[in-house]
Amino acid sequence: MHMPTCEAERCASMKRISRGIAACMVLLIVAGCVATPADYVASLSPQDPKWQSPECQQIRATALGYEAREQKVYWSAGLLLGPYGLGLVAAGKEHQAKQKKELDREIHLRCSSQPLPKNLAPPR
To answer: For residues 66 and 37, is the Cβ–Cβ distance under 8 A?
Structure first.
């Protein structure tokens, strides 16, 4: 009968931690791909008929102040909490990316007559 050694258990544990860190890094890259709402507003055409509407003006003001209100989530804080802390930070960053995408979708609907881009379509 083969009994696992402490070394084998430690090796398996390190592999799980390494996979978790790799998954967190992928989430970081994905979260970094989301444009800020202010950048998205700047990408829209001011010539669009919806641009001067009160709804568009309101959402543009919200977008311009978004970054000042956004809570910063730092990877260094996750490192202090260990491997589970990295997961918490990754989840926080993913949530922020989702909020930015939802705001970008709302900006588009209120300020643009163009069809909604596929990357802003609601999740199914």
So the answer is: yes
